[in-house]
């Protein structure tokens, strides 16, 4: 059980909730803060104070006074009118993350919602009622208004949800778990949708997958080094300490551990004096991507514990401030940076694939064929990897450099962070396919060299991979092999093989 406080959620906690089904509960202290904040909202109503989103309309209509008997209608109309999401839904795991992050933010006690709203979010999370949220339609400022409105609909018994493998009406999902729809009161609709939880949820899932992929890159490239009889000197610790980047030092260290005792790895001058950059510069390139991953992790761990709605309530309601914490710029920039960093892992991986399949760049059989000429072997596998790498280059164009005014020019600068997080996630999926292709080719290359000469750890990886994809003994539909290896990289933990420290 993970106890949420609004301030202490970590990416490790999120992983347990998302991927291991860990349930959550609210800390008693955070619930007390929620109650205090709610009393402040009720006092604002009774005092007839003019406060944005509580006794006024929204956005450009913030100057419109709302009568007390229209407060519930105001909040319901807000959710329904803002549920304008478009396109395919976010993956179910991302919807689950949105629930978790939204409840954690509200537990900070700055939002003025009732405990009933908190509990409805927790119940949906713990019982596996995951709102169906369209991916497109958010500008990433004023919060992820459209996506989070679709999330909120399910709490009200509207919209649709994923539930135990089915796509059903939100009302039916609640009924199956004996939950009643809630009726929103003052401030609550705004508090549910004015935040960055769509882009941040997508960003957290993307980061967790990217981190795993970055570690797998090192294992796979180590096998490629063996397949190409790479030179170990380039990974000597002194070289990397001389530059000083800890991430680069770490990559080189893990590569040395992977290739330890390998009889296929060479020393400079033994076969050649220098390797190509795609081999020699693995620590420098992968290390730079790790620097980015560390930056992204830092920003995500701040954002998942941030109050991002508007207005925020302080000092027992004496201070209610309309600000801009909903603006997604910090996450937008982080997601664009993540997209570029992961795209580079694919970029250099594809160049290693080319070195294995191109007979002009190695002494391996042309395209790793069993019978070159009659068969084409891995020729088009490199084409497909190159296509994904080029697609990544277009997806890596930063979303955060764009902005477009909205709400009658009241909201005149937006982050596009949700677009950035979606693009980063797509790049990660593409990169996994590229790495699956490199793994497939590397396994074939070491077979030509002699698997009995492999390092103990890479040999374990080879044996693991061969359970998924067989050797190239003749041409076949290799797309099936790449799909299976990609799924293996995504779902399997490679326990006892992967070095993650």
Written description of the protein model:
- The protein starts with a strand and ends in a 10-residue tail after the last helix.
- The model has no long low-confidence stretch (mean pLDDT 94).
- It is mainly alpha-helical and 501 residues long.
- The strands form four sheets. Strands 4-6-7 form a three-stranded antiparallel β-sheet. Strands 1-2 form a two-stranded parallel ribbon. Strands 3-5 form a two-stranded antiparallel sheet.
- 55% of the residues lie in helices and 6% in strands.
- The protein folds into two domains: 194 residues, Fumarase/aspartase (N-terminal domain) (Fumarase C, Chain B, domain 1); 289 residues, Fumarase C, Chain A, domain 2 (Up-down Bundle).
- Helix 9 packs across helix 11 and helix 13 packs antiparallel against helix 14.
- It catalyses: L-histidine = trans-urocanate + NH4(+).
- InterPro entries: Aromatic_Lyase, Fumarase/histidase_N, HutH, L-Aspartase-like, Phe/His_NH3-lyase_AS.
- It is found in: Cytoplasm.
Task: Give a brief outline of the structure.
With 501 residues, the chain is mainly alpha-helical. The protein has two domains: 194 residues, Orthogonal Bundle (Fumarase C, Chain B, domain 1); 289 residues, Fumarase C, Chain A, domain 2 (Up-down Bundle). Helices cover 55% and strands 6% of the residues.
């Amino acid at each position: 059980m993970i106890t949420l406080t609004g301030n202490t959620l970590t990416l490790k906690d999120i992983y347990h909730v998302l991927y291991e089904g860990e349930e959550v509960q609210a800390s008693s202290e955070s619930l007390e803060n929620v109650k205090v904040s709610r009393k402040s909202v009720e006092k604002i109503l009774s005092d007839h104070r003019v406060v944005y989103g509580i006794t006024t309309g929204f956005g450009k209509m913030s100057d419109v006074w709302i009568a007390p008997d229209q407060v519930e209608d105001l909040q319901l109309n807000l959710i329904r009118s803002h549920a304008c999401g478009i396109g395919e839904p976010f993956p179910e795991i991302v919807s689950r993350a949105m629930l978790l992050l939204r409840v954690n933010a509200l537990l900070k006690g700055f939002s003025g919602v009732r405990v009933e709203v908190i509990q409805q979010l927790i119940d949906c999370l713990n019982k596996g009622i995951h709102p169906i949220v369209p991916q497109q339609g958010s500008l990433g400022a004023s919060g992820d208004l459209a996506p989070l409105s679709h999330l909120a609909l399910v709490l009200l018994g509207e919209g649709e949800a994923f539930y135990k493998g089915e796509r059903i009406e939100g009302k039916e999902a609640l009924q199956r778990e004996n939950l009643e729809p809630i009726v929103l009161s003052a401030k609550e609709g705004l508090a549910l949708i004015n935040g960055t939880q769509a882009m941040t949820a997508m960003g957290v899932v993307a980061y967790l997958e990217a981190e795993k992929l970055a570690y797998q890159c090192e294992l796979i490239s180590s096998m490629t080094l063996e397949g190409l009889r790479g030179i170990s000197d380039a990974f000597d610790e002194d070289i990397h300490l001389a530059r000083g980047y800890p991430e680069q030092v770490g990559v080189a260290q893990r590569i040395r551990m992977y290739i330890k005792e390998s009889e296929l790895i060479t020393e400079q001058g033994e076969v050649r004096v220098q390797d190509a950059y795609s081999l020699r510069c693995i620590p420098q390139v992968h290390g730079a991507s790790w620097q980015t991953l560390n930056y992204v992790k830092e920003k995500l761990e701040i954002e998942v514990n941030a109050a991002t709605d508007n207005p925020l309530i302080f000092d027992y309601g004496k201070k209610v401030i309309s600000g801009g914490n909903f603006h997604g710029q910090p996450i937008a920039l982080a997601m664009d940076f993540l997209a570029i960093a992961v795209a580079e892992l694919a970029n250099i991986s594809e160049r290693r694939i080319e070195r294995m399949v191109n007979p002009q760049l190695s002494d391996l059989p042309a395209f790793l064929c069993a019978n070159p000429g009659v068969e084409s072997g891995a020729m088009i596998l490199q084409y497909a990897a190159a296509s994904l790498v080029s697609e990544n280059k277009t997806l890596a164009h930063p979303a955060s450099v764009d902005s477009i005014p909205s709400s009658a020019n009241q909201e005149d600068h937006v982050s596009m962070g949700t677009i950035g997080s979606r693009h980063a996630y797509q790049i990660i999926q593409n990169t996994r396919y590229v790495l699956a292709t490199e793994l497939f080719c590397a396994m074939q290359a070491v077979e030509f060299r002699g698997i009995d000469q492999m390092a103990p750890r890479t040999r374990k990886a080879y044996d693991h991979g061969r359970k998924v994809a067989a050797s190239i003994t003749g041409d076949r539909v290799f797309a099936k092999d790449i799909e299976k290896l990609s799924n293996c990289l995504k779902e399997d933990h490679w326990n006892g093989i992967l070095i993650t420290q």
